[in-house]
Amino acid sequence: FNLRTRPTNLPPSPPSLPIIGHLHYIKIPLHRTLHKLSAKYGPLISLRFGSRLVVVVSSLPAVEECFTKNDIVLANRPRLLFGKHIGYNHTTMVGSPYGDHWRNLRRIGAIEIFSASRLNKFAGTRKDEVERLLKKLSRNSMHGYSKVEMQSSISELTFNISMRMAAGKRYFGDEVRDVEEARQSRELIKQIVSMGGVSNPGDFIPMMNWVPNGYKRKVSRLGKRMDRFLQGLIDEHRSNKEEERNTMIDHLLSLQETEPEYYGDEIIKGIVLVLLLAGTDTSAVTIEWALAHLLNNPEVLKKAREELDNQIGEKQLAEELDVSKLPYLQGIIYETLRLNPAAPMLVPHLTSNNCTISEYEIPRDTIVLVNAWAIHRDPSQWEEPTLFKPERHQNLESSDHHQIPKMIPFGVGRRACPGSSMAQRVVGLTLATLIQCYEWERIGEEKVDMTEGRGVTMPKVVPLEAMCKARPIVHNIFN
Ligand code: HEM
């Protein structure tokens, strides 16, 4: 970090140590640690993670400046070792630098993956997976309350949905075609997810990458294994054309035949990778947190159930598109994303040029972290910010910051999440049917523990357990 080129007007900064800079402040969960620092030093702070300059943004007006006038400058991503080894040398949609390649991926994504018509093609798959979960819950709860562990059931649901959309395979539950393949792939992806985030000191202190270290070896080995797994899926589909299948891999392979320059194997592998890594845990933790809030707020659960009974009735299951008729349920989802955003610090951005934010000078190549978690709990924006109140989204007044919404769980600007509508379909359908089909209660008198654990998607530290009892609709539909 060259002091001579350091701008004089950087955002305020806490005292730092030689070489490591502010890395010693970094404790898990990161969003809470950085929130504490921002409370002391201001809504824009500058830190040094080893040799890297990092700016943390923790107020809505500053976020507005970032993603309106500075949106292009901030549309880059830092090159972390994870993206090199797992993310095909920074060429996937999440990790790619801003430029033609990224624009091309977003274009492909908007048309071929995330458009309403492509998502509709898989509505049956998502419905089938949700119904399997509902049936599984009914095993012991048809005639009385039984205890269920929801964390693993929900993450299996979202993983099966992504795998079936991508490759037509289930890796959890019944009808797993190759049990050993499923076991190995689940284990591989679990290990990869645990390596994400800003957990590698070598990303910030380059000399740590010069010596052999555990992270580098592990991430490189996992990257190779993941590539073999993804290539295996593609080859299987390529050699099995006659089998009638409607999966993303088949669709992308058919586009490869007509436009091979855009749809190389590596692009297809990158798309499947992103679907599995960015699209499963995020939705799963959102559903789990939402259910936890409902258990702690039975009056909210009651209102949601009344809304479902009035709008959908007790004879048919809610469908994905019904969620638009359920404003209170939508309020529950927004409120969960406000208090427990699955990407609490968004995804790190990188400045590709010098810029100014709140009159501070931000040099080129600065990593910018946005603390969405802190912004969603800012008392100047939200009344009683820590309370779970879905009503607040019913007549949400427009914020003073007209160019961006008051809540940013999916980010804003060019790099905002392209999978938000898929996420909203999965989360909406799952929650609607869980509420429609079951009575839910806490295991005991004590409130559900809402502490956050380790991991980039802000999981619950204690896996959610609950008591559930089938409502009459379950007898009508599944008997
Ligand atoms: C509740 C669920 C989800 C949440 C809260 C969420 C949140 C986010 C956030 C905050 C970002 C970064 C925005 C930024 O850089 O400022 C992001 C990026 C991204 N998300 Fe999501 N996401 C969710 C679900 C999904 C799903 C289901 C998919 C795909 C199937 C997906 C795919 C992506 C991709 C590809 C990017 C990178 C975009 C880019 O860099 O251009 N996400 N998401």
**pLDDT < 50 stretches:** none
Radius of gyration, taken over Cα atoms and rounded to an integer in Å: 23 Å
Please report the distance between the alpha carbons of the first and last residues.
67 Å
Shape type? globular
Average per-residue pLDDT, rounded, comes to 92
**Percent range of helical residues:** 40-55%
Structural class: alpha+beta
Count of β-strands: 9
* Spatial arrangement of strands, main beta sheet: 1-2-7-4
Task: Please give the largest β-sheet.
Answer: 4 strands, mixed
How would you portray this structure in words?
- The protein is of the alpha+beta class and 479 residues long.
- It contains 18 helices and nine strands.
- It has helices at 30-41, 60-67, 81-85, 100-113, 116-121, 123-138, 150-167, 179-195, 207-210, 214-238, 248-258, 265-278, 281-296, 298-311, 327-339, 372-375, 420-437, 472-478; strands at residues 44-49, 52-57, 146-149, 349-350, 355-357, 360-362, 367-370, 438-441, 465-470.
- Helix 10 crosses helix 12.
- It is globular, with a radius of gyration of 23 Å.
- The relative contact order is 0.17.
- Protoporphyrin IX containing FE binds at residues 93-94, 106, 274-275, 278-279, 282-283, 286, 341-343, 346-347, 409-411, 415-419, 422-423.
Characteristics of this structure?
single chain, 479 residues, transmembrane, alpha+beta, globular, 4-stranded mixed sheet, binds protoporphyrin IX containing FE, 9 strands, 3-stranded antiparallel sheet
Structure summarized in a few sentences:
This protein has helices at residues 30-41, 60-67, 81-85, 100-113, 116-121, 123-138, 150-167, 179-195, 207-210, 214-238, 248-258, 265-278, 281-296, 298-311, 327-339, 372-375, 420-437, 472-478; strands at residues 44-49, 52-57, 146-149, 349-350, 355-357, 360-362, 367-370, 438-441, 465-470. The chain has 479 residues and is α+β, with helices and mostly antiparallel strands. A hairpin with a 2-residue loop joins strand 5 (355-357) and strand 6 (360-362).
